[in-house]
Design a protein that fits this description.
Length: about 375
């Protein structure tokens, strides 16, 4: 089994090296058309991996399908092992849940990039290294979560209750207009590192007195040493605002992982299925951000739909034994269909609402008619 893990991690690292070292070696602004192409590639890769999951679990390649899955335990399967069909459905359900929850992360990333005024040409670099860190942290969190579930099976109910509470919070509470500059993580980073006032190209760190620090930001109007660089002793290592943005992106992913990892454990506790579905969902986050960043406000009902998805998987986690007995062997397929239906409804409702608003605002629309009557 260890060779399967090593092979998968090596494949992911090779794809990331190809991404940054070849296709994005030179910093550039990622256009929507390019982002859509990369999104299609990552989604196709993630979905195609389900074919490997099917044959791997069906034929027990290198130990696949021999790990205990608490969500697979039933009267006919007391060992809790997944065959090819079960593993494929669980992988696709987990991938869909993680992918949809990552969309919520895009809202926050867009806000962070706006607050730190990250130049568009460097946003891909921040997201690339942010996702590298996210893969490591999520791998660690999945390992800890899986170990806890093996030792203390009742934790599954705590995870389920937590997801339901999170869903209720998302439905009832409005987003806080917080200032990232007052965030404790930002303040701690500023205490640990002296941070320059300006961007210095694509560098996360510069040394006072170096060519990079003297060059300053890339725009002609900002080619002036900022106060921090000028006051620092030559050779002092200084962080740039790009590093602050990276730290906040990493911190944001940890917060979202607290919701998303329990959600995938509601589908399966098989560590390989949990990790691979997470990884493929995260790998496409960068391109998805550039494809959707300009359309985020158009999907006003997507966030409530995500909250309902969390509630569904939370209920599944709390009542999985009873639901499995009630719905039968195709239980996980019904969960996958429910998640797809909820997300589709959220997208359709958002599109309808946007078109309705545009119709009302057009001359001669309902809104203009009422305005003429009032006049």
């Amino acid at each position: 089994m260890i060779w399967m893990w090593i092979g998968f991690v090596a494949f992911v690292l090779a794809m990331l090296a190809l991404d940054l070292g070849v296709f994005h070696r030179t910093a550039h602004v990622v256009k929507v058309k390019e982002a859509l192409g990369w999104s299609a590639m990552w989604i196709t890769l993630g979905l195609s991996f389900s074919v490997f999951i099917y044959f791997g679990y069906e034929n027990r390649w290198l130990g696949l399908g021999t790990a205990f899955d608490q969500m697979a335990v039933s009267a006919t399967n007391p060992e809790g092992l997944n065959d090819g069909t079960q593993a494929t459905i669980k992988y696709l359900t987990g991938y869909l849940i993680e992918k949809s929850l990552s969309v919520d992360n895009i809202f926050v990333i867009a806000m962070l990039f706006g607050f730190f005024a990250v130049p568009a040409i460097y946003q891909h670099r921040v997201l690339f290294w942010g996702i590298m860190g996210a893969l490591v942290m999520r791998g660690a969190m999945i390992g800890v979560g899986a170990a806890l579930l093996r030792e203390f099976a009742w934790i599954i109910y705590i995870f389920g209750g937590f997801l339901i509470l999170t869903a209720v919070k998302m439905l009832l509470l409005k987003d806080d207009e917080t200032d990232p500059g007052n965030n404790a993580i930002v303040k701690l980073t500023r205490k640990l590192f002296r941070v320059t006032e300006r961007y210095h190209g694509q560098h996360f760190f510069v040394r006072a007195g170096s060519d990079e620090s003297r060059a300053g930001a890339t725009s002609g109007t900002d080619r002036v040493q900022d106060g921090v660089v000028a006051a620092a002793t030559p050779g002092t290592l200084l962080a740039t605002p790009l590093f602050l943005a990276l730290v906040m992106v990493e911190f944001t992913d940890v917060i979202f992982a607290v919701d998303s990892i329990p959600a995938i454990f509601a589908v399966t506790t098989d560590p390989f299925l949990v990790f691979t579905s997470n990884v493929f969902a995260i790998l496409g986050l960068r391109s998805l951000y550039f494809a959707l960043a300009g359309m985020i406000d158009s999907f006003r009902y997507l966030k409530p739909a995500l909250a309902v998805v969390l509630m569904v998987v939370g209920v599944k986690m709390l009542a999985h034994t009873w639901l499995k007995a009630l719905l039968g062997e195709h239980f996980n397929l019904y969960v996958l269909a429910a998640v797809l239906g909820i997300l589709a409804l959220g997208v359709v409702a958002s599109i309808w609402h946007r078109e309705h608003d545009e119709h009302v605002q057009q001359p001669g629309g309902e809104g203009s008619g009422r305005a003429r009557v009032a006049d």
